[in-house]
Automatic annotation (TrEMBL), chain A:
Residues 21-242 form the ABC transporter domain. This is Biotin transport system ATP-binding protein. GO terms for molecular function: ATP binding; ATP hydrolysis activity; ATPase-coupled transmembrane transporter activity. It comes from Geodermatophilus obscurus. Keywords: ATP-binding, Nucleotide-binding, Transport. Transmembrane segments: none annotated. Gene3D superfamilies: P-loop containing nucleotide triphosphate hydrolases (3.40.50.300).
From TrEMBL, chain B:
The chain crosses the membrane at residues 21-54, 66-84, 96-122. This is Biotin transport system permease protein. InterPro entries: ABC/ECF_trnsptr_transmembrane (IPR003339). PANTHER family: PROTEIN ABCI12, CHLOROPLASTIC. The keyword Membrane applies. It comes from Geodermatophilus obscurus.
Length: 243, 208
């Protein structure tokens, strides 16, 4: 299974606007510990993978992209919007899926949780109901509409977390190790969902085989981008680095 | 409450959450105001009819709520047998049983968001002193959501400790659980930000 370009289902729908994310000399530190140092990048590709060892700065980089973390120095711009000063608008454009879905699901039942983000945006109730129904069907959760979230399987929880983000119709979605806690079957299931998205995606992952069809892969090492290129260029290089 | 909701289209399901909660409060007040066995029995029959016949809830859903208090009710009846009389004991037990069943019917036929909306509505007058009802409602919903999550994590820690030879370490559970809960809370805070919790409108839109 590979995460690739936008799926066939996207062909019929009007294309979403593309997002451009620009990092200008970004540094981030937690106290004394610098986790990202002088990173400058422009991200315009539809499918971008991020790999690297634990503690290399991948997750902090991912969090910078929708303003969950603001840089200690430097600037992050999403379509020209500064994540430091225009964070609400940035978060409407860039969704974020966490590694642990249990930390992302905030309502006790499935449909209520999917509706959460739309409710926050003040979307009218009829529109919320319509969009929630669509997303639940799309991700095979319509049979679990009123199901307690804590009784879902790991894969279903991750799909629910993804549905809760996608219902808000972001233009780009950042996934922070979305398959790390999943078994092979659920990993493939989530990968198929990511593969079918019409949104631009950034995926932080340790599952290198899933990145083969991506447009670009960034390799992080000690808070810097150590390699940047196509999967064919970067993944073997990274594997060789790991010994 | 955590997983009791049973979807349906019955009259009880469609009734407004506020009305159901008001009826529950009125029933509780009425049962304690009138200590007559025929009134209590009639109320019990009414609640059972509402739950089983009108809302068409499975008997097991109601029994699941009674089971945890069954011993307490039995003990209460025995207490009355010894200190007062059987009739007083029967009234006391049936009164509590009726309330437990009524609460079960309300929670089994009402979505959490609808109950939370009632909480928010009740808190609305406090907006003048700075209370944000939507925030309080979110806290209530999240409390219900995270009770089973924290319980699951506690069970995992217990298993991990048992696997390494520990047994009966109730205090030893607290520190790792607290650390995990704090980590969960940190990620949850990020998730709330990412999902626009900061944008919570003053009033949530009503369901269609």
């Amino acid at each position: 299974m590979r995460w690739g370009r936008r799926g066939a289902t996207a062909a019929a729908a009007p294309p979403l606007p593309r997002t451009a994310v620009e990092l200008r000399d970004v540094t981030h530190a937690y106290g004394e510990r610098t986790v990202l140092a002088g990173v400058s990048l422009t991200l315009t590709e539809a499918r971008i993978g991020v790999i690297g060892a634990n503690g290399s700065g991948k997750s902090t980089f991912a969090r910078l992209l929708n303003g969950l973390v603001v840089p200690t120095a430097g600037t992050v711009l999403v379509d020209g919007l500064d994540t430091r000063t225009q964070v609400r608008e940035v978060r409407r454009r860039v969704g974020f899926v966490f590694q642990d879905p249990d930390a992302q699901i905030v309502h006790p039942t499935v449909a209520e949780d999917v509706a959460f983000g739309l409710t926050n945006q003040g979307v009218p109730a009829d529109e919320i109901a319509r969009r929630v129904d669509e997303v639940l069907v799309q991700y095979g959760l319509d049979g679990h509409r009123d199901h307690p979230a804590h009784l879902l399987s790991g894969g279903q929880k991750q799909l629910l977390a993804i549905a809760g983000v996608l219902v808000m119709e972001p233009q780009r979605v950042v996934f922070d190790e979305p398959t790390t806690l999943l078994d092979l079957g659920n990993t493939r299931r989530v990968a198929r969902v990511v593969d079918g998205l019409e949104q631009d995606v950034v995926v932080v992952t340790h599952h290198l085989d899933l990145l083969a069809a991506f447009d670009r892969v960034l390799v992080f090492e000690d808070g810097r981008v150590a390699a940047d290129g196509t999967p064919a260029e970067t993944v073997p290089w990274y594997v060789a680095r790991c010994g | 409450m955590l997983s009791l909701y049973r979807p349906g289209t019955s009259l009880v399901h469609r009734a407004r959450a506020g009305l159901k909660l008001a009826a529950l409060a009125a029933l509780g007040t009425g049962l304690f105001a009138v200590a007559r066995i025929e009134v209590v029995v009639a109320a019990l029959i009414g609640v059972l009819a509402a739950g089983l016949l009108v809302a068409r809830l499975p008997a097991g859903v109601l029994w699941a709520q009674v089971r945890p208090v069954w011993l307490l009710l039995t003990g209460l009846f025995v207490f009355h047998l010894l200190l007062t009389d059987p009739l007083t004991g029967a009234v006391a037990v049936l009164r509590l049983l009726t309330l437990v069943l009524a609460a079960a019917v309300v929670t089994a036929t009402t979505r959490v968001t609808a109950l939370v909306a009632v909480v928010e509505w009740l808190l609305r007058p406090l907006e003048v002193v700075g209370v944000r009802p939507a925030r309080v409602g979110l806290m209530v919903a999240m409390t219900l959501r995270f009770i089973p999550v924290v319980a699951e994590r506690a069970a995992r820690i217990r298993e991990a400790q048992a696997a390494r030879g520990a047994s009966g370490m109730r205090l030893g559970l607290l520190v790792p659980l607290l650390i995990q809960v704090l980590q969960l809370a940190a990620t949850l805070g990020e998730a709330l930000d990412a999902r626009g919790a900061d944008d919570v409108p003053a009033r949530r839109p009503r369901r269609a």
